[in-house]
Design a protein that fits this description.
The chain is α+β, with helices and mostly antiparallel strands. The chain folds into three domains: 114 residues, Orthogonal Bundle (Butyryl-Coa Dehydrogenase, subunit A, domain 1); 109 residues, Beta Barrel (Butyryl-CoA Dehydrogenase, subunit A, domain 2), CATH 2.40.110.10; 151 residues, Butyryl-CoA Dehydrogenase, subunit A, domain 3. Helices cover 52% and strands 15% of the residues. The protein has a four-stranded mixed beta sheet. Strands 2-3-7-6 form a four-stranded antiparallel beta sheet, covered by helices on one side. A two-stranded antiparallel sheet has the order 9-10. α4 runs antiparallel to α8 and α7 runs antiparallel to α10. This is 3-sulfinopropanoyl-CoA desulfinase.
């Protein structure tokens, strides 16, 4: 497969790299330390088109392709994974879901302000008792007698951008007896009565990407804000997660790239026993393994992005490609970040250098949008047809 980038793809990659280097990289450590949401740089990303890269221009986006999206994600995440997380949720879990399954009115109302950066979108599937077992949800949505709205009750957990989001793509049971087939999707306006934000979670990594629990307390959701038909929510959730996994795979490549590049510079400069440590065979072995896995991850992500582009044209699926990219890239990010700390020795454990942040940030890529264990299960089932 030819992965030669088009001129347009090179432009978005270059623009994202320039912004990441000049605007994000200098503030990344401070925002990681404080856990504060980086509202100013996120707004600037919206102005650059980075918060809705694949969204058509008529809905406030940049109107570009999936490869452009992953290229930009890699650059932003190499500077700071927290910015990458916010960007990923906005682009894939939120905007992509409404673009794919929403009505024209829903696209105009709920995609345009988010893709343009005027507002932030979020995605609410996980609940306190159901992480990987997403079908085991307890949130309920009951249609009012007059059919004008649904009343939502329930709690969602680990909602990225939850503390700051204006709109949330949320899932609740409209038919509890039907299990996964009874799940329905809704677009929730967080400024309406009955939407409650919980405390911001104190996380190990990606600390500047605000995360919290949210709760629905007799929240009245207009029926026109239902996404798709009743009972289609689980299908929508899984379809959206395919796109989300490609975004997280690209984020993982960004983290891994930053950690790897830090190592290359370090082993050339760091002296031990009178020579650069990069001359020692054990260090050379680590560098070789890191580089090989990094490039393999990059190619898997580009392959998944191309599969997504083909699926948009044909209506097919790209589940296997997305899960393979997410699985391998996330585990590669953790491997390279781990090796980076080891190669840097005591300084790798210090906050004076960014490699300890890369280590903390890398871990989450093996967990959200489906754990590595879930990715292996998905890939196996898609290949064998066995459940």
């Amino acid at each position: 497969m030819d992965f030669t980038l088009t001129e347009e793809q090179q432009m978005i990659q270059s623009a994202a790299r320039d912004f990441a280097t000049s605007a994000i990289q200098p503030i990344a450590a401070d925002f990681d330390a404080s856990g504060q949401f980086p509202a100013e740089t996120i707004a600037q990303m919206g102005e650059l088109g980075l918060m809705g890269i694949e969204v058509p221009e008529e809905y406030g986006g940049a109107g570009m392709d999936p490869v452009s999206y992953v290229l930009a994600m890699m650059e932003i995440s190499a500077a700071d994974a927290a910015h990458g997380t916010i960007m990923s949720v906005n682009n894939t879990l939120y905007c992509h879901g409404i673009l794919k399954y929403g009505t024209e009115a829903q696209k105009q109302a709920f995609v345009t302000p988010v893709a343009s950066g005027e507002a932030i979108g979020a995605y609410a599937l996980t609940e306190p008792q159901s992480g990987s077992d997403a079908a085991n949800m307890r949130s309920r949505a009951v249609l009012a007698d007059d059919g004008s709205h649904y009343v939502l009750n329930g709690k969602k957990s680990w909602i990225t951008s939850g503390p700051v989001a204006r709109y949330v793509l949320a899932f609740a049971l409209t038919d509890p007896e039907a299990g996964a087939r009874g799940v329905t999707a809704f677009v929730v306006d967080t400024e309406a009565e009955g939407f409650v934000r919980g405390k911001t979670e104190p996380k190990l990594g990606i600390r500047a990407s605000a995360t919290c629990e949210i709760e629905f307390e007799n929240y009245r959701c207009p029926v026109e804000n239902r996404l798709g038909e009743e009972g289609e929510g689980f299908k929508i959730a899984l379809g959206v997660l395919d796109a989300g996994r490609i975004g997280i795979a690209a984020q993982a490549v960004g983290i891994a790239t930053a950690a790897y590049e830090a190592c290359v510079g370090w082993v050339q400069e760091r002296q031990a026993f009178g020579r650069p440590i990069g001359e020692f065979q054990m260090i050379q072995s680590k560098i070789a393994d890191m580089k090989t896995r990094l490039e393999a991850s990059r190619l898997l992500v580009l392959n998944a992005a191309c599969a997504k582009a083909r699926a948009k044209a044909s209506g097919g699926r790209y589940t296997t490609e997305a899960s393979m990219a997410k699985l391998f890239a996330s585990e590669t990010a953790m491997f390279i970040a781990h090796q980076a700390v080891q190669i840097h020795g005591g300084m790798g454990y210090s906050k004076e250098l960014p490699v300890e942040r890369y280590f903390r940030d890398a871990k989450i890529t093996e967990i959200y949008e489906g754990t590595s264990e879930i990715q292996r299960m998905v890939i196996s089932r898609m290949e064998t047809g066995l459940r």
